[in-house]
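Fig. S4 source data, part A: sequence.
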Amino acid sequence: MVETRPVSGMERLWLVGERLSPGFHIELVLEGRGLPRPAAGWPALLRALAQVVPASRARLVGALGWARWQADGPLPRVAEVDLSGWSGLSDAPPWPRAGACDPRQGPLVQVLLAPGDPDRLVLRAHHGLVDGRGLLLLARTLFALLRGESPPASPLGGLTDAALARDRGVAAAHPPRRDCAGVGGASSTPDRAGTTWRRIRVEGHPPAVLARTLVALARLAAVDPQGEVRLDLPVDLRRHLPADAPPRTANLTGILRLPMRALLGQQDPVAATRQAVAAALARDEAAATVLAAGPARWLPVGLMAALSRGDSRHALAEGRYASSALVSNFGQVDLASLSGGGFLAHRAFVITPSHPGLPLFLAMLGTGQAVELCAVVPRALAGSLDGVEAALRRGLGG
């Protein structure tokens, strides 16, 4: 029987993201030596992957609140690309941007192989289908199979973010006001389409790296004395699952909204920020945002996209956003778990998708050797990237 899972309200918002910013994928970029060569070839390996992680071949079926992810779509696409002239530091060509994706057709997972110096592997998965932890799980499973191991199965069905959030006993959050100063201010060209990104590598492992990153970005936004300064942090709700629960690729992530201006006024803003995050986690505030997204299951994606598109233009023109930035912390990643089949990973970073009205979507990932940050901004705010990079390097000592 084909596995299915209901599309949650939060996942439906990520489907709106596809309409606003086509190619709404999360991307894991690995740099190293060698390229994976499956013993039985890529088709056999991908069939094995689909047996262990059915979501790797999922597609969207149904409409509105009856929509589901169904594991009978095409297998992940594998392609070789030429990145020999790419710096690895931005989306400048020949970086192959993810094209528009039809979630009803798929494939929603892609593997790009790029020989060169370094050799690179890019794993892409649509954000409507997986969250950041789900992408890492997919990558670790792929490499476990390449190493000839038998990784645990990750079922597609049976659990949504809404079910996890309801168990926390919290009320749905109120929608955020569009009152925040952004890290890039307002745009003189708010209709400029698309997003762009920059990779920032800070060597070593700075202490309190998340809190220091939040403080650095908050100080950048606080230059505007009138706007609120509020940062969004994705929080993995899998932490509430039993230790023996099977791994899951679904979007099981809530959003913690952290007011920062008062924290910047504390004697030790970094320590105050760490305490504020811990307190918000204890109150399960991230679950409240999942519940707030529930009604989106019953709204047409086209209608939500049209409303969001107009709101984004106003946000960019006025320099007032629902949050000053969103910071996604992928934590420490063991590069050995992302190696196999002839490939040895030396570096890794994550490129997130971005909403055109979100002034900054920052992904951060540690490898023990360095902290890799990828700053994604609307093209209308591309000029803010120099300031963002300078602020992060000051804040992290890089």
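Fig. S4 source data, part B ends here. Residues 301-318 form the longest helix (18 residues).
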